[in-house]
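Homework help board

Subject: predicted structure for assignment chain

Our instructor gave us this sequence and asked us to write out the predicted structure in token form, then describe one feature. I got the tokens but I'm not sure how to describe them. Can anyone check?
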Amino acid sequence: MNQRNTLRGLFVLMTFLRTVTAPPVSAEDAPISTRGLAPPNDAVVLFDGSNFDAWKPFSWQWVNPNDDQNEVQWNIIDGDAMEISFEFEGKRRKQFLCTKEKFGNYRLHLEFQLPGGDSGNSGVFFGPLYELQILDSSNKETLGLGDCGSIYQIRAPDVNAALGPGVWQTIDLDYHAAKIGKNGFMAEKDAARVTIRLNDQLIHDDIKLSLRRNKYAAYPEEPTSPIVLQEHGSKVKFRNIWIVETNTEPE
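My token output:
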């Protein structure tokens, strides 16, 4: 047997051994989709398509200095979703939505869908106004601090897990609130932390949120805070929003 045949034989043998010894690929090896995931028994259901009872209007002082928006102007559509609205009683009016209840440590599940025809700009605020950016970034190779999945102006996602318009996408967010000392201050080691999965892909892994670089940095760290949905000029839809409060310490 010449050298070429010897090498070919070794290659075939090694390929065979890798095939018979490698563990079979199973469904357990793939990420489990949380799209449409029902809330567990201990969850606080924030939106299931039936009403806005868990929500109230929210707007910044420069938009609505008197904070006089009492009516939710967003719309319930398709039987299970909410859609951003820009008008109330025929007049244009900017409005975010904010949960009536505040939460400390929690796991948040939320699904959103971007509209066609624009960037789909919106956001989910967690903790004391950290914003998880919602945007059409599905075709980008390099993501920045303002792309989909970024913690806005603070940290870009580790991978691009964003999907395009017209597809329901999932956010699964584990938030651990900062510990505030008796003196009212927070030590660096006690900063808030967050782990985020977008469409079942890990995009932020136990990230410390001690750096307040976004435009809401003036808001102080607090042990509890609401969930806020942003209106940013695009008819983004949301559905299946629920939260499970936790008492776990970060690893």
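Reply (TA_rk): Your tokens look well-formed. For the description, you could write something like this. The CA atoms of residues 86 and 94 lie 6 Å apart. That's the kind of observation they're looking for.
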